[in-house]
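Protein of interest.
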Amino acid sequence: MKVSRIYETGGPDVLRYEDAPEPKPKGNEVVLRVGACSLNHLDLWVRGGLRGLKLDFPWALGSDAAGEIVAVGDLCTRAKVGDKVLVAPGRTLSASYETACGRDNWAPDYALFGYGCQGLNAEYVAIPEANALPIPGGLGYAQAASVPLVFLTAWHMLVGIANVKMLEDVLIIGGSSGVGIAAIQIAKLFHCRVIATAGGEAKLAKAKELGADHVIDHYKQSIKDEVRKITGRRGVDIVFEHVGAATFEHSVASLAHHGRLVTCGATTGFETPLNLGRLFAKHLSLNGSFMGTMGELYEVLRFFERGLLRPVIDRVFPLSDVRGAHEYLEDKKQFGKIVIVPE
């Protein structure tokens, strides 16, 4: 089979497209013929080298995929050959306290495909049966592969952490990204007034088409000033953050009294100032978030089954051109997900 792997960290040039043996399922595993994968910023960070992350080279990237089951292990009880499934991106094999309490993303051995365990950018992959979930709502492979990581992350942030309520004001930073597009749609399920930021007229227009009530060009406009205008100086109830240093100060300043900020990343850097006076005087809550639980993923997929959420795909690349897909994502050209399809 063909696989995309790296033998060292670095730029897009370290990606190799090569042959590898087809995997065989262990007792509790299934083998998936991959119909499509999708890229996440996590792939860029792992490829580039994350401090403290040790990779067992050669290393396959990729946390999201969908396809057809072609083999099942002897201990599998639910999955069948021919099932069309998407892959839950977070894996845990332990019977831990956290898993028993429904917090599997807190489990000691919790790992993301492509980050803590070998990834999914291949023609065939072996995954635990528990990670093979039915594709909802008649989605195709490319659509299904665009769902799990970003929609689970956004759902956990807005619903699980920020406890979004009906008719609140929500500021979504980076509304053209995968998680941003998911967040816009999830916030609109609660009939929230959504303010989304993006760069450039084309992306702003697409964010409005997706449901954003107001848009801000974060390259040309002051986020906090525009939020004040839109909300009559009140600020927003929730800020959805994942950009970090470039926007964080504006994000905190955009919060109303008792506002909640939730962040899952820092694509522009981790170091940022924080006005502690604003924090305690306005009773603000700042929250971190990492992925989400398997139960939350099942919950999210129900909305796709009903057609109330939808994936947004920007462009499809062949598996042989993973390097081009990485370069395209690094150039911030996309609105939505970048999909990789085995030839």
In short: Residues 2-147+311-341 form a domain with the Quinone Oxidoreductase; Chain A, domain 1 fold (CATH 3.90.180.10). The CA atoms of residues 263 and 288 lie 5 Å apart. The two ends are 11 Å apart (CA to CA). The first helix runs from residue 41 to 48.
